Every structure is written in C-alpha cells, then in structure tokens.
Amino acid sequence: MASTRQTALITGGAKRLGRAIAVDLAKQGYDIALHYNSSEASSEIVADEIRSLGVQCESFQADLSDHGAVEKLVPAVLERMPSLSVLVNSASIYDPTPIAETSIEILQQNFSIHLVAPFLLSRDFFNSCPGGNIINIVDTKVHFQQYDYAAYLLSKKSLAELTKMSALEFAPKVRVNAILPGVILPPEGRGEDYIEWRRHGLPLQRIGNPTHISHTVRYILENDFLTGQMIALDGGESLTAEGRSVIQFEEPSGE
Known about the structure:
- The protein has helices at about 15-25, 40-50, 65-80, 105-130, 150-170, 190-200, 210-220, 245-250, and strands at about 5-10, 30-35, 55-60, 85-90, 130-135, 175-180, 230-235.
- It is α/β, with parallel strands linked by helices and about 260 residues long.
- It has a seven-stranded parallel sheet, with helices on both faces.
- It is globular and about 55 Å long.
- It starts with 6 loop residues before the first strand and ends in a 5-residue tail after the last helix.
C-alpha cells in the first residue's frame, strides 16, 4: 500500500548533518528518500534506523558531480515516492585549498556538488512537485573571505545566492531557505584542542550540535511565512570580524 505521508529527499543523507536531518524528519513523520554517493553501507544502516521509526525509507545512489545522474534523481524518487514535498540540499565536500593552489578539477568538483547539483535538483523539484520546501545547507563561512577555502567557499556563496534567487522565482508554490551552520560538526580528524580553539572564538563560547540543525529545519518547515532567508546557526560567529579557520589553527605562530 502506498504511503500517504509526505516525503523528504535529503542529499548526503547517510552521514554527518544529512543523517541527523533525515532521522529527525523521520521522527516527525516524513518518509525519507535517502541520497548517497559512495556510502552505501552507511546509507543502509541509516535506512534501517529510519524504518524502525515506522516510516518508509528508500535509498538512492547518485554521483552529484555527474550532471546526468543528478537529472535522474528527482524522477527516480517520484517514481517510488510520489508524495515528495521537501528537498534538503545537504551533500558537501571540503577542500581547504587557496586560489593559487586550486586545480580545475577541485574547482569543478566543488561547484558541481555545491551549486550545479542543488540548482538542477531545485529546478526539477519545482517543475515536478505540486508545492513544498527547499532547504539549502550552506556555511557561515560565506560571511567571510577565507581564501584558504577558495573553491569550497565560492561555491557555497553561490548556493546562498541561488537560495535567494529561487525563492523569488518559485514563490508562492515553493518556499526556499538556507541554514548556515557554524561549528556544529568539526572536520573529521580534528581533536579537542582544535574544537576548544574554535569555541573561544564564538560569542556564545560553545559549539553547536546536529540537534540545532534539525530544530531549524523543523522551524523552516512549520513557518509558512518564511522564504529566501539565510539562518546563521553559528553561535554568533558571523557577527565577528573574521571567522576562525583550520589554516589559522595550523599556523606555527598560533592565532
């Protein structure tokens, strides 16, 4: 029997923030379309966890740097889960590389995953679904000019602009908003010393956690007068003169 629940498609839903969002939306009663690229084993673990909550979960593999694969994703989801009403563009890669050292491959990869894929998925969602919400996961670093993350940051800045542009074009049928996480899940491999260093650079003097992201997703979905907004979930970091970065932390002279 087909489900009558609404469906949420989460890109990068097998890991980190994408996983937290997927599980929380399942707890709110959404069926979940769980996208992954190479994390098949992780996606099955998450899918089993979601199904144990009493909702439907289907996994969808796609390389978001392959534009053809991206264009097949929304139709594939709708074929199996026709009640699609939420798209969360969460998939991300992380290349801390300055402009002078950025190859064309790094540049293309970052823009493909952080801009082109969300652009195509948003277009297809708008054209194929009767209405709903798009939520883009950006990064509070877009408030700064940290050139040590050139391709990553420029592509995320572009995603922020896509949020505002598509919010205008897609209204009133689809609302589009963005969440700009700060220190929520530090880069893999970073120790407590790095986390403490970042914490001391925040006005709130504490780091966030994935629950803060999940609660903000819920707020966006429940507040039907909200569109085109950038919600900086960063402990006040975007209010400071310059955000702290891994590159600064690794400098021999310290801060």
